[in-house]
């Protein structure tokens, strides 16, 4: 599905990662993976901590 919205002059990150994989550019692939995963990890950790502190007793 991420391959569908690719148009001229624009490219989604999943397509970029796939192209790096196909071209054998492992170092660039790893760094792009970290760039993609780091904000998601920080966001989910912040959400977890916020939800844990506001937990309602049953």
Strand content: under 5%
H and E order: HH
Q: Note the gap between the termini.
A: 40 Å
Quick one: overall form? elongated
Low-confidence stretches: none
- Radius of gyration based on Cα positions: 17 Å
Q: Helix- and strand-based class?
A: mainly alpha
Number of strands: 0
Number of H- or I-type helical stretches: 2
Layout of strands and helices, then pairs:
Layout: H1 13-23, H2 26-53
Helix pairs in contact: 1-2
Write up what this structure looks like.
There is one protein chain. Helices cover 67% and strands 0% of the residues. The protein starts with 12 loop residues before the first helix and ends in a 5-residue tail after the last helix. It has 58 residues and is mainly α. The radius of gyration is 17 Å and the shape is elongated. Helix 1 packs antiparallel against helix 2.
Sum this structure up briefly.
The chain is mainly alpha-helical. It is built from 2 helices and no strands.
Features:
mainly alpha; 58 residues; 0% strand; elongated; 2 helices
